[in-house]
Amino acid sequence: MTTSAPSDAALYARFAEVFKHIGEGALAREQNRELASDAVRQLKDSGFTALRVPREYGGSGVSLPQYFRLLTRLGEADSNLPQIIRAHSGFIEQRLESDDAAARDRWLGRIAKGETIGAATSERIGSTHNSVTVISDKDPAYVLLNGEKYYSTGTLYSEWINVAAHDTQSDLHVLVRSDAPGVARHDDWDGFGQRLTASGTTRFDNVRVPADQILSRYKASEPRRNSLLTAFYQTVHLATLAGIARAVLRDGVEFVQGRTRTFGVAGQSSPRDNPLVHRVVGRLGSLAYSAEALVEAVAAALERVHQARITDAVTTADYVAVDIQAYQAQQIVLEQVLEAATLLFEVGGASATSEARRLDRHWRNARVIASHNPAIQREAAVGNYHLNGTAPNERFSLAHSPADNVAKTHGSSGHAVTQNDEFAGTGR
Known about the structure:
Elements: H1 8-32, H2 37-46, H3 64-77, H4 80-84, H5 86-97, H6 101-112, E1 117-120, E2 133-136, E3 142-149, E4 160-166, E5 171-177, E6 183-185, E7 202-210, E8 214-218, E9 224-225, H7 229-257, E10 261-262, E11 265-266, H8 275-310, H9 316-343, H10 360-372, H11 375-388, E12 397-398
Parallel strand pairs: 1-4, 9-12
Antiparallel strand pairs: 2-3, 3-7, 4-5, 5-8, 6-7, 10-11
């Protein structure tokens, strides 16, 4: 595959206006719970959603570090956007990892033209089985899809939905047109943050799907092959959090520079000249720098393993190491960005809590992102690795397994509750 890509400077220039426009509408969208359809359309039209697609398919072929730098800037403009395209981004990485050339040709070409993929893979808490079923249609060229998924992030904005389902033989992933008859998408996500990600319910009622849109089949008993996807998905969250830290610093500086009063003493001191305010803003700057530096380090590690895979020089230890690195970064970035989003209010007292400003959205969004993946479970996995050499999810990792799969949890039906490595570690 072609690996040459534009320079960072060229990429920043290319997307500067896109980020600016998205950022200018972020507060109004938050205030009105207005879905980010226009912003997503800009990402598609500008080629942002095809950044990782190789040039021979019509994309930009950027490296993983370049992609995560741009994703951080997008998160600074509006943290809903990186999450909206998170499953789509992982779908591209899965195609890049796969040996299925026909699937790469079919789907990467579509993505290069601006089509995106949402996910319908997760069940509501309390569900014990994969509720979406696939049965044969009277025409053997088609199957019928029935059931419901929640946490279907990005699906409202996408042309395609990657659905985790099962039939009488196995679990599978099937790609469904989002506008197909029988597909219903609902914006009923009720989290207090990341409100515009449309992470709600998707229902399938006798949806007729061409059988050649079954992307993969797998059995819950089969081992998961080595993959970068878990670390990749986590790094998307980390880049989004780093973007929030940048937005916190930006909004803190703008707030202080526009003020003429400090700590209730009107007209006698400028906040921007107050050494206490200097300390707060200095801390915000340091936290943003640290978060971004950790994302950069993990992205570089991902790129090294990605390149080693291309040259067939990758080992199981390489995959384990990058997972551990992503998990370790997670522990620090979460705490630092939540600290920054709280510390922001120290620059302005009660006036900073005005709902007109919605500065609380940074904390709310960071807190919701921090809740998607099990940070405490992964912290324990890191400790177990250092103490005992136990790799995360070791019983699911095989170096040379041909399977594109593993389901991590099983219900009474025997079908997977959670997804295979098509969406390993997605959270939502």
